[in-house]
Amino acid sequence: FLSDNGLHDFDVVIFTGGSGSKQANTIGLAGREAVRRFVHDGGGYIGICAGNYLACDGFSWGVKGLDAKTKSSKWMRGKGDVQVEFTE
Questions:
Q1: Within 10 Å of residue 34's Cβ, how many Cβ atoms?
Q2: Which DSSP string do the residues of 1-59 spell out, in sequence order?
Q3: What is the pLDDT of residues 31-47, one digit of tens each?
Q4: pTM score above 0.85
């Protein structure tokens, strides 16, 4: 689904809400590794809701780009504001 060559065309990858594990299954192991390398090499990652869970290393299916785990097994969510700015 995602290849390194495809990601080289972009500056940022965005994963939205839904199900982090389903997103992980959709892009597969090779896709998760491509995203991990993309971010490691300086690419941007925006995770919204499930997309943020996908970034975490606390799940066997995660991209493991973010050293984070959920607060509890009951998917307790926090709240916060994030500013995002796109530049040329």
A1: 22
A2: ---HHHHTT-SEEEE-SS-HHHHHHHHHHHHHHHHHHHHHTT-EEEE-THHHHHHBSSS
A3: 999 999 999 999 999 99
A4: no
